[in-house]
Design brief:
alpha/beta, six-stranded mixed β-sheet, 14 strands, binds fe (ii) ion
């Protein structure tokens, strides 16, 4: 099986662009399209021709480049069925349980609503990667804008069930601010303390903190840890349902 090459690059103010390339079939997909110029520049740098855009959700900082890129490349745009009407230039809509081929690789679609009502995640098990958009961030998660806490918690649960070594590509570089907040929720977590120091070093050097992994997030991301007794105690929510504790952490982050 051909390798999947992945190129991540910063764009707009704090978004990430991601290109995936199957050299055997000469296919290249942009995961979301925050900005046509930045995606085009990344394609030129790699010498890859755009064949697909895989959209996670309708927000403009994930779809703003769709039409210009499609006009320039004739690429096919795949996006979430639940918000297909809001995805510029969409050709094919998919939802949870759907699978499709990207060259030698199979792409599995998960419904991960909450940030938006139709948000989807693309998982490529053979490459060990997941493209989660604005559902999960390193040490954080997306704002719950079109859903509720219970819905978002269920979506995160699907990601938490992926193999721990899965590389997770997210829509934004929010990790340093997320680390500050995470330490207010679980200050005694040694793995989190260590990671916060590493994140500071990476950012000071101008480097990206992503991709992350499911395993690392399970150990350090407070949004995925409402079962932890110390967190429940700090929030005064001992024994309450995990989704409610998650919701309280999300509320505190919104206010932070
Ligand atoms: Fe978003």
């Amino acid at each position: 099986m051909a390798n999947l090459e992945i190129h991540q690059f910063p764009c707009l103010s704090d978004n990430f662009g991601v290109l995936i390339h199957d050299p055997g079939h000469n296919l290249t997909a942009s995961i979301d399209a925050p900005d046509a110029k930045a995606v085009s520049a990344a394609l030129a740098e790699k010498g890859w021709a755009l064949t697909h855009i895989l959209t996670t959700h309708h927000h403009a900082d994930h779809t703003g480049g769709n039409l210009a890129l499609k006009g320039a490349s004739k690429c096919a745009i795949t996006g979430p069925r639940g918000e297909a009407g809001k995805i510029p230039g969409i050709d094919a809509s998919v939802s949870g349980g759907d699978t499709f081929a990207f060259g030698d690789h199979e792409v599995h679609v998960l419904d991960t609503p909450g940030h938006t009502a139709g948000h989807i995640t693309y998982v490529m098990p053979s490459a060990g990667v997941a493209f989660v958009g604005d559902t999960l961030f390193a040490l954080g998660c997306g704002r719950v804008i079109e859903g509720d806490a219970q819905m978002m918690w269920q979506s995160l649960g699907k990601l938490m069930a992926l193999p721990k070594e899965t590389a997770v590509y997210c829509g934004h570089e929010y990790t340093q601010a997320n680390a500050r907040f995470a330490l207010t929720i679980e200050p005694e977590n040694a793995a989190l303390q260590k990671r916060a120091r590493e994140v500071d070093q990476l950012r000071a050097a101008g480097k990206a903190t992503l991709p992350t992994t499911i395993g690392l997030e399970l150990e350090t991301n407070p949004f995925l840890r409402p079962h932890v007794a110390a967190i429940q105690q700090r929030l005064g929510m001992q024994g309450q349902p995990e989704w409610k504790i998650f919701g309280e952490i999300r509320e505190r982050k919104n206010r932070s």
